[in-house]
Amino acid sequence: MLKKWLALIPVLCLTACGVFSLDVQEEPIRASAPGSTRTSTPSPVVTGDFMPTGSPTPTISPTARPSEPPALAATPRFRPGESLLLTEVHMVTVDQGWGISGPSVLTTADGGLTWHEVTPPQDLPAGVEARVFGAFPGNQSAWVIYSLDDYIAPDAVVWSTIDGGRTWRASAPLDHQTVGHVSRAIFSVLNEYTGWLMVSGSSVAAGQRHSNQLFETFDGGASWTPVGLNEFGVNGIAFANPQIGWMTMECSGDCHPNANQVVATMDGGMVWQYRSLPEPSYEQKLFSEYEYCNSYQVNGLDPLTVRFLVSCYDYPLTTMVTYLYLTDNGGADWSSALLPATVDGPQSALIFFDAEHGLLLGREIYRTNDGGRSWWHVKDVTWDGQFNFVDERNGWAIARLGESSALVRTHDRGATWEELTPHIAP
User: Fold this and answer.
1) Residue 22: which of 358, 339, 351, 353 has the closest Cα?
2) Residue 207 confidence (pLDDT)
């Protein structure tokens, strides 16, 4: 049990007082767009080193919801009262939220103490390791897709619910065109009706290769329209409205020379443009001193306000430095703040609640109340976590240490954490 090692963390730890402070558009690139139904005219195509491959294909209909009635949730695999080991937590309010345990999807209405199983009726072959990728726009709505043995099949469907998981509908098969030995799904949710799904494939044969296809929904996950293909090493997407979105990228080995950039779209994903990042004024050779610089944890708060992390490192990993990059005018100007040496960009969670207030979460926890220009140390923990906050004070995490894990909760921005004992409702 994690109780032993969690008990080593002082329960009433005061917030530390340490603080550290803050010291263009370029070429548009078009995603090849199978099946796009958009009527807007994208920007002219400009060739360059970072052009996605693939050519336009004939129009493909959106993955429309079948006419069949919704299906009931799958037969529960947990018994009433059984202890529960969650692998992910996604709360919507301080009481209501969603959880994932292996291939199972669950809901809670009491802050994570008791859970009800509401798994979609996905066909899961025996002996196959299934993983759930999900987005949870509200306490009654969810969108779920499965990978089997780390692979999302081209004919995979997206399951959606609007009644808290009591019933589910399957979209038509996505028929995605990504390639790779390993695939995953990345969601960006704007509201209960509007969102984006990127199916991302990767392969390490003959150098690391990436293949992604973006889909969009405007009807609560009922149908998914393919927007475009690209070969970015995408690790995160965030849309601020139906037109403006951002992607962060990473790569290693056979890496793209423009890895110190992020890309943005102004038309819902049809065309993506570079946003070059300036080197910090006090580190003029940052992008040339380190072999790789990757971006992570994008927060698109509104069309003008964006926050994300940039980590630079040598390969194989020997040293790493991480900066927060921020803009309040849509990328026309950028500021940056050097974060403590122990901050690991790929392993950290960056959560902004508005333009000013945010948390940086990892084995060291920090908070900001000035948009990221300065950060105050909150607490050190001895575990790695999958973090989820519903507001600045109330959060949960799946805390992991070695082979052990536990569901923990905070009411004070991460200054103290309480271990919960989740179980299936009687």
Assistant:
1) 339
2) 61
pLDDT of residue 197: 97
Helix (H) or strand (E) holding 384: strand 384-389
pLDDT surpasses 60 at 260: yes
Side chain identity at residue 144, one-letter code: V
CB 263 within 8 A of CB 249: yes
For residue 31, give the nearest of 240, 222, 147, 177 by alpha carbon.
Answer: 177
Residue 406 has pLDDT above 70, yes or no: yes
Say how far apart CA 80 and CA 87 lie, in whole Å.
Answer: 19
pTM of the model: 0.85
How much is the pLDDT for 252?
58
Ramachandran area for residue 124 (φ above 0: left; ψ -120 to 50: alpha; else beta): beta
Report how far residue 339's alpha carbon sits from residue 23's, in angstroms, rounded to the nearest whole number: 11
Q: Is the peptide bond before 316 cis (omega within 30 degrees of 0)?
A: yes
How far apart are alpha carbons 384 and 157 in whole angstroms?
31
Those residues whose C-beta lies under 8 Å from the C-beta of residue 386, and which sit 6 or more positions away, are 87, 88, 89, 349, 397, 398, 400
